[in-house]
TrEMBL record:
The lineage of its organism: Bacteria, Bacillati, Bacillota, Desulfuribacillia, Desulfuribacillales. It holds the Pfam family Peptidase_M19. It comes from Desulfuribacillus stibiiarsenatis. InterPro entries: Metal_Hydrolase (IPR032466), Pept_M19 (IPR008257). This is Membrane dipeptidase. It comes from the Bacteria. GO terms for molecular function: metallodipeptidase activity. GO terms for biological process: proteolysis.
Length: 306
């Protein structure tokens, strides 16, 4: 069964010369056909000068992206729906996890867009000039600058990743209505199953389903089970099942967070994904298993990319 994965931090880890579980050969052997790669910097820009340094770090990560993946003849860099090639072994996408630097110059957005970034997560784990994050101590959500940025993303047919946003920021995006850009949660789970600020409430899940987005389930223990040391693949199944029961059969997908966090042992590398495929087939049947493992991401990207 082909696999699509909505989030990994390979580029950041590789740029720091840290060991990674992802590689071209690993993805190929594991039958991963679509992989989203995040650009990430742990220290975000607080000024135009520091933001320029962060942009240089992103450019370094993009060079790794080119060298390790998109320069290969059987790998396709997806920047629009027309880039999909059914004969390709691997399709790769580029996203931004934390848009802090984009608040200081519109040129930064244009540069990253021209380099191929199509998915934008407004915040990581701290508030910024655009929005509050899931760990915020504030009662606010999108800022005025954040609303303006949403209009820009919508105009460009960009995709907004809500995974690290506060719930108020999330609902502020939903309230934009016609100006609302396409939204996804690339690596988020169900708050009903596991009560953690990084997870989505039932209302948020239903809103993403209504908007035609995608929710990628991750394998981080503390997001799977409130007793994180007890987290297993069974919890992954429970999160998937909960979203399906909300009507999300065509929405729930994978968002591993490979190379971004310590994951449960059963799903700590792409090699383990075929085991998850087997479990999903056993629990839900082949049709739904294929949707979760691959089709939901593929269909979403074909429908919503520029």
């Amino acid at each position: 069964m082909k696999i699509a994965d909505g989030h990994c931090d390979y580029l950041y880890q590789k740029s720091r010369k840290q060991p990674t579980v992802i590689s071209y050969s690993t993805l190929k052997q594991s039958r991963v056909n679509i992989q989203n790669f995040a650009l990430f910097a742990s220290k975000q820009g607080g000024s135009i000068e520091s933001s320029e340094k962060i942009l240089q770090e992103y450019q370094k990560q993009i060079q790794i992206f080119k060298d390790d993946f998109i320069n290969r003849t059987d790998c396709v860099f997806i920047k629009s729906k027309n880039d999909f090639d059914n004969n390709s072994v691997l399709h790769v996408l580029l996203s931004l996890e934390g848009c802090d630097i984009l608040a200081y110059s519109s040129d930064f957005f244009d540069q990253l867009w021209n380099l191929g970034a199509r998915i934008f997560g407004l915040t990581w784990n701290h508030d910024n000039a655009f929005a509050t994050c899931c760990h915020t101590k504030k009662n606010t959500g999108l800022t005025f600058k954040g609303i303006e940025f949403m209009h820009k993303l919508s105009k460009n047919h960009a995709i907004v990743d809500v995974s690290h946003l506060s719930e108020q920021s999330f609902w502020d995006i939903i309230a934009l209505n016609e100006s609302q850009p396409t939204i996804i949660a690339s690596h988020s789970n169900s708050k009903t199953v596991c009560n953690h600020v990084r997870n989505l409430s039932d209302g948020q899940i239903k809103a993403i389903i209504s908007s035609g987005g995608v929710i990628g389930i991750n394998y981080v223990p503390e997001f799977l089970n409130e007793e994180k040391e007890k987290a297993t693949m069974d919890d992954v199944i429970r999160h998937i099942d909960t979203i399906i029961k909300h009507g999300g059969e065509n929405v729930v997908a994978l968002g591993s967070d490979f190379d971004g966090a310590a994951l449960i042992k059963e799903l700590n590398s792409p090699h383990s994904l075929q085991i998850l495929s087997y479990r999903l087939n056993k629990e839900f049947g082949d049709k739904i298993a294929n949707k979760v493992m691959f089709e939901n991401w593929k269909n979403f990207l074909l429908d919503r990319l520029p």
